[in-house]
Amino acid sequence: MAHAGFPNGLGIAAEEIEKELEHDSDETGRRLIIEDNGILIGEMSYRNLGESTAEIGIKICDATKQEKGYGKILLRLLINKLFSMGYEQIVLDTNLNNKRAQHVYEELGFEKVRVNIDSWTDQLGVKQSSVDYKLYREQFIQL
């Protein structure tokens, strides 16, 4: 998670995640496990922000599975599903240093809305910056 600004990981216990998962629903949002041949390699999620807007996130945690195209394929599937569910806008943010992710988002049609310089401090006390993106159905580049 260092690439996202969390060099010491997220520090969330499995029991806490299990408890949170009990409240997931199609209406509020879901966390989805990413597997490759039965092996857990990451997760993605969406959250209903209201006003037909969903916030999404994705993490390919297994470094051997990064830069293989999984993220772009899985995001396309998730975005297609969210638009079919009635969402009109999808938003996300990423660490300004995560150029790989920014490249994928922009290839999918996301528009950079804002850069937030030194907007938060990581676990090591280092200031971090982020980039906000948005995507409307007509901007979505499917294939």
Order of helices and strands: HEEEHEHEE
Instruction: Tell me the strand percentage band.
Output: 35-45%
Total number of strands: 6
By secondary-structure content and strand pairing, the structural class works out as alpha+beta
* Tally of alpha and pi helices: 3
Mean pLDDT score, rounded? 90
Shape: globular
Low-confidence parts: none
Major sheet, described briefly?
6 strands, mixed
Taking all Cα atoms into account, the compactness measure Rg is 15 Å
Strand order of the largest sheet: 1-2-3-4-6-5
Distance between the termini: 29 Å
Percent helix, as a range, is 10-25%
Question: How would you characterize the overall build of this protein?
Answer:
- This protein has 143 residues and is of the alpha+beta class.
- Helix content is 22%, strand content 39%.
- The protein is built from three helices and six strands, in the order H-E-E-E-H-E-H-E-E.
- The protein has helices at residues 14-21, 70-84, 99-107; strands spanning 29-36, 39-50, 53-60, 89-95, 111-121, 127-136.
- Strands 1-2-3-4-6-5 form a six-stranded mixed sheet, with helices on one face.
- Strand 1 (29-36) and strand 2 (39-50) form a beta hairpin.
Overview in brief:
With 143 residues, the chain is an alpha+beta fold. It has three helices and six strands; from the N terminus they run αβββαβαββ.
Which labels suit this protein?
3 helices; six-stranded mixed beta sheet; 22% helix; 143 residues; alpha+beta; globular
Write the layout of secondary structure elements.
Elements: H1 14-21, E1 29-36, E2 39-50, E3 53-60, H2 70-84, E4 89-95, H3 99-107, E5 111-121, E6 127-136
Parallel strand pairs: 3-4
Antiparallel strand pairs: 1-2, 2-3, 4-6, 5-6
